[in-house]
Amino acid sequence: MIHRRALLAGAAALPAARAFAQGAPGIAQRLDDAPSAGLKRDLLIQWGDRVAYDAPPFAPLAPNLAAAEGQFGWDTRVVAALASPRVEDGIPRAVLAVGHPTLDPAMAFPDGRDQAEIAGAMQGASLINIQRRGGVWLVTEGGFQMRRLHARTLCRMGGAGGPARGVFGVTGGSATPWGSLLLTEGEGAAWARRLPGVEAAQAGHVVELDPFEPQSVPVKRIALGGLAARDVAAALSADGRAVVFLADGREAGLLWRFISDGPATDANALDHGTLYTARFEAGTLRWIALPADAEPYGAAVARGANSLGRPVALALDPNGARLCLALREIPRNPAGAVVEILFAARDPAGDTAIVENLMEGRVPPRPRPGREPALVPAWPVAPSSLCLDGQGNLLVGTAQPARDSALPDALYVLALEGRARGEPSLAYVTPLGAALGGVASVPGATAWVAGVAHPGAGMGAQFATPRSRWPHFREGEPPRGGVVALTKAA
């Protein structure tokens, strides 16, 4: 059992580590994916599937720029599921936002050589319509909100800025209480270096757009600091202002917050406000306001900001009382941790908060070369995506830096209350070489959607010789990352 006040500032041996040793189920690397008992898996979309209505069929042996701009991207990071505009037929529907952060030429192109312009089209983000029919979740053919964002998408710089080119390296995102979608360009700097003609100053921002209007122009909100954040979460203050939290993803990285000057309902609320950084002290958090126009990192360090580890993912309680933070690694544990931040007076714009440890990772055994995959205890290692499902659970996806671990990356469920608080239950195991590429809970439905990122990768894998050909296992077809829906089995 995880004690309510077991803080990251405490001793190295935490209750989570003891629970790991006592009875976690055993799992092993496998070619295919696997939902846990009682769950059903539906494949929604995969690399190369049509997003734009006029996109051609997937032809991996002949990559094409125009085709790639209309097809689902190579990498997968589920960042948000938004309730569809109201309809009267009673069919469960949602708009799903998926980021495409990276692209490995060895796995994406037949000759293994980078084709930068086409790679830029295979990254960015996809918005897709999904619905449930006949007990199965599927993509809505020709859905109104279906849209691809890529290296040539027309954008606008926030404030007094002019037009900008491209959405780059989307690693995270969040639906907002004021009806927009935020996307973080966490890999934006890498794409700016990789793609000719891309200005570095126009990458690495938080991008805001209307997810329900496919003609809306994405806006890069430069007032949020240009931090190349890995993830973002949005809330409303008690007085109706926009509150945006940012996890910057750096080693010994910082936690940030932006509060708008005016109401969140103002069209350009995120262009004017105050940027804050967090200082952690003995189980508490205090927000430090930064001067306008200051370089964020220098100003934050000068004012006493500090780090709990490498912050990579956020999940915010819809009522604004709780923020969960995933740390891929912490100073005393490379397996990472998940912490809970409880806002004073339930106001995300307050000056202070309580910080509590929820779960700490455990380094898995090393794989045994030349032997059959061994069973290892199922426990989160390198937590990298989070989602609160509205049922009192926190969904945790893992993405280990080393793809040759004995433990497959997976999706876990953590209870937030009661005797089982903080103890993970295994929900879904990814195929060999894959990471759990983000997770979201479908609004108004008892379903989760999870990403399967770069299946078949690792150990010198290439386009023609992947470690797994998930999901179809067809000879000559490369593995295809994508999105699955998980629902309770009938």
Record the SSE blueprint:
Blueprint: H1 15-23, E1 26-27, E2 34-35, E3 39-46, H2 65-70, E4 77-83, E5 93-100, H3 105-108, H4 116-122, E6 124-133, E7 136-139, E8 147-149, E9 154-157, E10 163-165, E11 172-175, E12 181-184, H5 188-194, E13 206-209, E14 219-220, E15 231-236, E16 241-247, E17 255-263, E18 273-281, E19 284-289, H6 296-302, E20 311-316, E21 322-327, E22 337-343, E23 352-360, E24 376-377, E25 383-388, E26 393-398, E27 410-415, E28 424-429, E29 435-441, E30 447-453, E31 482-488
Describe the structure.
This protein has 490 residues and is mainly beta. Helix content is 8%, strand content 36%. The chain has helices at 15-23, 65-70, 105-108, 116-122, 188-194, 296-302; strands at residues 26-27, 34-35, 39-46, 77-83, 93-100, 124-133, 136-139, 147-149, 154-157, 163-165, 172-175, 181-184, 206-209, 219-220, 231-236, 241-247, 255-263, 273-281, 284-289, 311-316, 322-327, 337-343, 352-360, 376-377, 383-388, 393-398, 410-415, 424-429, 435-441, 447-453, 482-488. The strands form six sheets. It has a nine-stranded antiparallel β-sheet with strand order 15-16-17-18-19-23-22-21-20, with no helix packed on it. A six-stranded mixed β-sheet has the order 10-9-14-13-12-11, with no helix packed on it. A hairpin with an 8-residue loop joins β27 and β28 (424-429). The protein starts with 14 loop residues before the first helix and ends with a strand. Mean pLDDT is 92; it is low at 1-23.
